[in-house]
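During the reporting period the student researcher (J.K.) took over the structure-prediction task from the postdoctoral fellow and processed the backlog of single-chain submissions. One of the processed entries is reproduced below for the supervisory committee.
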Amino acid sequence: MALHDHPHRHLGFRFLSPGRTSTAPASADEATAAATATRAHVFAGLRLLTGFVFLWAFLDKTFGLGYATGSGRGWIDGGSPMKGFLGSVAVGPMESTFHDWAGAAWADWLFMLGLLGIGLALVAGIGLRLAAVAGTVMMALMWVAEWPPAKHLSDGSASMSTNPFADYHLVYALVLIALAAAGAGATWGLGRTWARLPFVSRNRWLL
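J.K. obtained the following structure tokens:
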């Protein structure tokens, strides 16, 4: 069998020259799809991390894991999750109101159920709109309790506020709103399955 050269026929592969990659530059559509996927994963990671913050706060306050809540002082041991925080409010327009709420069973239940519900919703990726509303209300109340605009407490001592407006409560609230607006439950979560349920489809505020 004779072999002949065919100068105009190309093989199905070619060797790479130095400095060239193995694939052609991605098209605009591919680049957009990659950016969308990256954004979805970033939001999903942020959702899970924020959910862990709320769930951990619930677990620590319930069982007294020795972090913010000492061992033997958890809710399950008869402690009040809100008494210490609300009782120590020393500034702001709702100072006396928060003192009245300190130790109240209804305040403890609302706060703890809020932490648990928001945490579970974020981790599962469902009900993010409800979680955003509940979390924003919770963060707003805690912002008022700490009252960052004040330079001095009611007794005249320095408040040690680091910013007259923006603090971590507002950051958390904004994160919750952003996660709900971005539909962050669809990636690494049950968001798509949740959205297909009949009662959720009829009541979009449950997304």
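The committee noted the following: Residues 1-24 have pLDDT under 50 and may be disordered.
J.K. will present the remaining backlog at the next meeting.
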